[in-house]
Design brief:
By secondary structure, this protein is an alpha+beta fold. The protein contains ten helices and 20 strands.
Length: 379
């Protein structure tokens, strides 16, 4: 029997997955409130690499045209030597289908702005600078007490509050992110003439040196090394430190290094891994995106996995008018996602571990090929 009551959902976290699930649930006529801890809606960051399966979800959200215009779509990836010599360029897998590019690079802030505008246009209620301080569940719903002293009543709470999710701990899931042993330096800069796709260098002064165009005029570049004690690195020295590491590379990297002058534009972050074992929900609260799983960007699939979570969960919720068996629905969501997500997380971590172990890249083509074959399937 169909339950005629209107459904209400609280989304905690206004990043990619939280914004995406909000847009899709509103399209299905479900009432959605979204809360985000950051008062600026988290419109920071350098760049992001969006592979085809992420682009497929962005098209589903109705923002692909804006993403395509603001970003930089391309279909190839290069492998270069430390001196800058391009060793080879190959066509990348079109994981979103042949009617979408293999990849699009984008300024992270631009993507966030596009998604935020789509959330607003969809009619969701948005409260910034707000967090959930308490979740009180019963058989019929969840009462959520908010940091501003108010409270709301919901049929479902979707926690999309990231790697260090407070909701994850609040509902009794003890899994925590673990450092993988690597760290990344990122900087947003101008796009040198001739840079028309991503390129990677394995080896040299860092484990990996790479760059990705993010618009007609911009790109982001990154260097991956063993992680260090962050407290021992003065943030005012970030630009100098990244230039020092970049000095070991030639070609385009000479121009990149010369552009790294402002330490405030350099980001230093450790790589982490997370995969919540067992169900991703407790009662009427479910984790999605980085709150449930996260991986190093060695396969550039983190955002794609988060966006796919939003798409799959929204589809399942929208197709089920009767939410009386919500536990079974959320269990089914986990079962549908876990193999695909586990494959990506474990492969992403393994690619980095081979670098840390000095084991070379002999196993890389096979592992990447197997992982791409999984990703090419519909989520």
């Amino acid at each position: 029997m169909t339950d005629p009551r209107p459904r209400t959902v609280l989304v905690i976290g206004g990043g990619a997955s939280g914004n995406a699930v909000t847009i899709l649930l509103r399209r299905a006529g479900i009432t959605v409130d979204l809360i985000e801890a950051q008062p600026d809606w988290n419109v920071l960051g350098s760049g992001i690499t969006l592979q085809g399966n992420a682009l497929r979800v962005l098209r589903e959200l109705g923002v692909w045209d804006e993403v395509q215009e603001a970003g930089y779509p391309f279909n190839a990836i290069g492998l270069a030597a430390p001196d800058g010599t391009m060793l080879f360029v190959h066509e990348d897998a079109r994981t979103g289908g042949e009617d979408l590019p293999a990849t699009a690079g984008m300024q992270r802030a631009q993507l966030q702005k596009i998604l935020c505008e789509a959330v607003r246009a969809g009619g969701a209620s948005v409260r910034l600078g707000t967090t959930a301080s308490e979740l009180l569940q019963d058989e019929d719903g969840v009462t959520v007490r908010l940091s501003d002293g108010t409270e709301g009543r919901y049929d479902l709470v979707i926690a999309a509050d990231g790697l260090n999710s407070a909701t994850r701990a609040m509902i009794g899931i003890g899994d925590k992110p673990e450092p993988t042993g690597m760290a990344i330096w990122r900087v947003a800069t101008h796009r040198p003439e001739g840079v028309e796709h991503s390129a990677l260098v394995y080896g040299g002064s860092c484990y990996i040196a790479g760059y990705c165009p993010t618009s007609q005029n911009t790109m982001y570049a990154y260097l991956v090394e063993a992680n260090r004690d962050r407290s021992a690195i003065d943030p005012d020295s970030y630009a100098e430190e990244m230039r020092r590491l970049a000095a070991g590379y030639g070609g385009v990297w000479r121009e990149i290094a010369a552009s790294i002058t402002d330490p405030a534009k350099v980001n230093y972050t450790w790589f982490h891994r997370l995969l919540v074992e067992g169900p991703w929900h407790r009662g009427r609260v479910v984790l999605i995106g980085d709150a449930a799983h996260a991986c190093p960007p060695t396969l550039a699939q983190g955002a794609a996995m988060s966006l796919e979570d939003a798409s799959v969960l929204a589809e399942m919720l929208s197709d089920r008018q009767d939410w009386s068996s919500l536990d079974a629905l959320l269990t089914g969501f986990h079962e549908r996602r876990i193999h695909r997500v586990r494959t990506v997380v474990e492969a992403s971590v393994q690619l980095g571990q081979w670098q840390l172990d000095g084991a070379g890249n002999a196993g890389m083509p096979g592992l990447i090929g197997h992982t791409m074959s999984v990703i090419m399937e519909a989520p």
